[in-house]
Write a structure and sequence with these properties.
Largest sheet: none
Shape: rod-shaped
Number of helices: 4
Structural class: mainly alpha
Distance between the termini: 85 Å
Strand content: under 5%
C-alpha cells in the first residue's frame, strides 16, 4: 500500500509539473511570436515612412505668409493627403501592435505630430514646407527611439527612399 501511495503521488506531481511546463512553453512561444509580429509591423512602419515623398528632407526657410501659387497649392494638397495617409497608417499600427509594446508611445507621438501638422497648415497653408520639415524631424526622433528599444529594426530616415531622384530614361 505504501508503494501504491508513493507512486500515485509521484504520478500526480509529475502530471502537474508536466502540465505547468507545457503551459509555460506555450505562453513563451506565443510571446515570442507576438514580439516577432510586432517587430515586423514596426519595420513596415519605418519602411513606409522612408517611402513617403512628403517627408523628403530639404532646407527649412523663413516662415511664409504670402499666398501660394497654383502649383504650390497643388503640392500642399498632395502633402496634406500624404500626411493624412501616414496618420492612418500609424493608427493601424497602433491597433496591430501589442498593447504592452514600449514603442506605442512613440507611435502615438508621431500620430499626434501628423494631427498638429494638419492643424497648422489649416491656419498657415503657405508655410506647409516648413511645417512638413518639422513633422519629419519629430517622426525621425520617434524612429530613433523605437529602434533604440528594439535593435532588430533597421532605421531608415523618413523620406529617404524618395530623396534620390531618378535619372532621365531609367525607370
Amino acid at each position: 500500500m505504501d508503494g501504491f501511495l508513493s507512486n500515485t503521488w509521484a504520478n500526480l506531481v509529475g502530471t502537474f509539473v508536466g502540465a505547468a511546463l507545457a503551459i509555460f512553453a506555450a505562453r513563451r512561444a506565443e510571446r515570442r511570436h507576438r514580439r516577432s509580429t510586432d517587430v515586423n509591423e514596426l519595420q513596415r512602419v519605418i519602411d513606409r515612412l522612408a517611402d513617403a515623398r512628403a517627408l523628403t528632407k530639404f532646407p527649412k526657410s523663413r516662415p511664409r505668409t504670402h499666398p501660394l501659387s497654383a502649383s504650390a497649392q497643388e503640392d500642399e494638397a498632395r502633402v496634406r493627403l500624404s500626411v493624412l495617409n501616414l496618420r492612418q497608417m500609424l493608427a493601424d499600427a497602433l491597433h496591430n501592435i501589442s498593447k504592452d509594446d514600449p514603442s506605442l508611445g512613440h507611435l502615438r507621438d508621431m500620430q499626434g505630430a501628423c494631427s498638429r501638422y494638419m492643424n497648422y497648415v489649416e491656419v498657415y497653408p503657405s508655410d506647409y514646407e516648413n511645417a512638413v520639415q518639422h513633422l519629419r524631424d519629430t517622426v525621425l526622433i520617434g524612429l530613433h527611439a523605437i529602434v533604440a528599444i528594439n535593435r532588430r529594426l533597421e532605421l531608415r530616415e523618413p523620406g529617404s527612399s524618395s530623396s534620390q531622384l531618378p535619372q532621365l530614361g531609367t525607370y
